[in-house]
Amino acid sequence: MxxxxxxxxxxxxxxxxxxxxxxxxxxxxxxxxxxxxSGLAGEGSGAATAENFSEREVTIMFADLxxxxxxxxxxxxxxxxxxxxxxxxxxxxxxxxxxxAIDKFAGDSIMAIFxxxxxxxxxxxxxxxxxxxxxxxxxxxxxxxxxxxxxxGIGVHTxxxxxxxxxxxxxxxxxxxxxxxxxxxxxxxxSLRGQILVxxxxxxxCGEFASTxxxxxxxxxxxxxxxxxxEVLGVPSLELKxxxxxxxxxxxxxxxxxxxxxxxxxxxxxxxxxxxxILDVGYHGVLIEAERELALFSEVKLDVDLPLVVHRAxxxxxxxxxxxxxxxxxxxxxxxxxxxxxxxxxxxxxxxxLLQGHGSSA
Length: 362
Description:
By secondary structure, the protein is of the alpha+beta class. The protein has helices at 3-21, 27-40, 68-74, 77-97, 120-144, 179-190, 200-206, 341-355, and strands spanning 53-66, 101-106, 109-114, 151-167, 172-177, 196-199, 211-212, 216-218, 227-235, 240-241, 252-265, 268-269, 274-282, 285-289, 299-306, 311-326, 329-338. β16 (311-326) and β17 (329-338) form a beta hairpin.
């Protein structure tokens, strides 16, 4: 593309902006658009420079499919790709409908950006609710076709980022970077299947536009204070409600932890103590290596060290709710029936730290 063609394209863009907003591009914006056009034309280095970036407030959304790894392992690649494409097509339509921009697809997740004065958080939240509704409709279709259900967790956060072209002459892409992007990703990691979590920053901009649950404080790696998030339940003014799922699980993470257990019979803790290993842990239960004699619906008392939070949990009572075999090894799923407030808080912090890569608990 010659220089004259770049100038012509720039003039057309200026006309579109003026017609749409009633305002002309200022000198700095004109320079940035011209630089981007030159880069696309191969007339620039394509490398990121300070003039290619600008600071702005945006609302960032991360959406991630829950259980996709196990789905991919259990079904043919063709089926997995078909389900993934159906899902991404529906999610993309919702994002575009609410004037969002898809920043990237990464495996089974989507990152989208909502910008613009004043209402970016509202548009992002409305989009997130419509995405969960679309997932619910997809699952009804999947059930009728004998296909597995898919569930999505979504995180939304508003903050100031640096936006611009990243890369080189060989490859470059427009994206946003900064700590606020990392926070949005962390918030998404805490969402359960079918759930939408928003930061206080996004919630403050939404006001009464979105109905939300009570605030929750979660641990975020690298921050001294906990981050406050809320669950979005719907958008009353648009008559939108997030579909509820009866079977919701807390975040779960693999963690090899030795523990001691005792049987509980007729509310009495029997004296015999046996050792075992926890294989994964969540807020409300664990998966353990268990002896075959540990019967379904039997009750036990657990005694386990949580090393990352320096806490010995010796007051957990649980019920066996599931029995499976994996590689010939008997496993049992335990659901907590009673534990102290302190242990519950420490356990949640322990899970959150593991989710964010604070090291092995082995």
